[in-house]
Every structure is written in C-alpha cells, then in structure tokens.
Write a structure and sequence with these properties.
277 residues; mainly alpha
Length: 277
Amino acid sequence: MPVDHYENFPVASILLPPRVRRPIESIYAFARSADDFADEGSFSNSERIERLSNYDRELANIAAGIGTDHPLFVELGHNIRTFDLPIQLLHDLLDAFKQDVIKTRYENYAELVDYCRRSANPIGRLLLHLFDIREQRLLAMSDQICTALQLINHWQDIAIDWKKNATGRVYLPQDEMHQFGVSDHHIATEAAGGAWQSLMTFQVNRARQLMLSGAPLAHTIKGRFGIELQLIVAGGLTILDKIEAANFDVFRQRPTLSRLDWLMIICRVIPAAIIRR
C-alpha cells in the first residue's frame, strides 16, 4: 500500500491473503491519521486532543450502530463488523496518541510499557483477530513483538522525538537515564559518548530480548501470515543491529532499513520458512 511516511516494517504486504489486505489498510489509515493529529502540523494541543476525540466519537457511533459519512469510518466500521474486531483496541490507540500530546517524560520502564500496551500492542492483536487467532498465549507473544517494535522505533527516533515538543519528548525511562548518568543535555547536544552508549546498550539488549521472547509466534502461525511476522521480527532485530553498529549514535544517522537490507532479510527468511514447512 502507498504511504506518506517511512516505515520499517511491511504493511498489508503482497504476502498476505487478499481478503485481509483491505482491512489492514483500513486499520493502518485510522492509526496513521490519528498519530498525525498528535504529532504533525501546527495544531495547538487542544486542537490535537479534539481531533482525536472526534475519532473516539466515531468509534462510539460504530459500536452503537449509528451511521457515518466519514469515508475512513465507513470502511473501518464494515471491517469491525465483518471480522468482529474489538473496538476497545482502537480506543486504546487513540488514548496513547492523546498521551503523546501532553506527556513528554516516562518515570520508569513500567510507564513506558503501559504506553506501548496502548500505542503498539493493539495493532498486533487486531491483525491476529483478522485471522481469527484469539488464544491468550499467542496474543501475549504478539504483545511482546509489538512492544519491542515500539521500543525499537523510539530508540531510532530519539533525535526526531526530541524536536516534536517545545520541552523535548523523551521516551527513555527517567530513572534509567539517571542510573547511567545520562540527562536531557546528552540528547540536546547529541552527546553519544560513554554514558550514552552504556544506557543505549541496556535499552537495545532489553528490546532484543523482548523481541526474541515473542518471535516463536511467527513460527507457530502457518502460511503467509507467519512468514510476514518472521519478516517483521527480522526487520526489528536488524534495526537493533544497526543501532549497535553505529555505536548507538542515533543522532547523526538514523538507523533505517534499506531496500538491500529488506532483500537480504527476504532471502534469509523465506527459504528457511519454506524448508520448515
């Protein structure tokens, strides 16, 4: 699907069965546009919150069976009814985006994980619902993958996030920054020396372990979706490798996945998946 933003990971790729591509695109359009309300443009904070609240009201109308003329919600409502998607997961996304408007610091890792629970995990759970996968064990592994992906995105976007708010938005847990001797000044001055490297080594290792804990989901699910998940996991791990290879200096060059990176990942993942089948 065409998108206006750089994406690390496949969205509604050709690997997936055609019957779920449109629903995935619908979910993505909802999440992407809502995220833009929180982050992009020159809106005031109150305007951002109001736009997100309008989305909440549209979801409430879908739940109540009230019609809408908003094209995005016409399509989304159809997919919610067809696939019995939990509307609360979509409300959770909006709640996280509202939080982005007003919250710029996270006291500890538990606070950050709670944010990921609402900003990232709903996407994975919605995808599993599209394939009628409801087992709690598998949903929990999906949460681990999605939280890891969100953390990886935070670590590669530290410099970008800092510029999105007048006081700087920082997703690094404040207590861990203090523990490693890192302050906002390191981010503001792009100081990627010893203390910064120690902190980011810790963050990257934890994100990698979280991703690896959820990775068995990709091998549990058969068919195209399982391969898609394997590609997503491999993409996330590759970004972490790139952050390490840059000595954790995410200020001077944002680690991203190039076409060559994706080609190498595809050439590694797909043959292995075929052999396992």
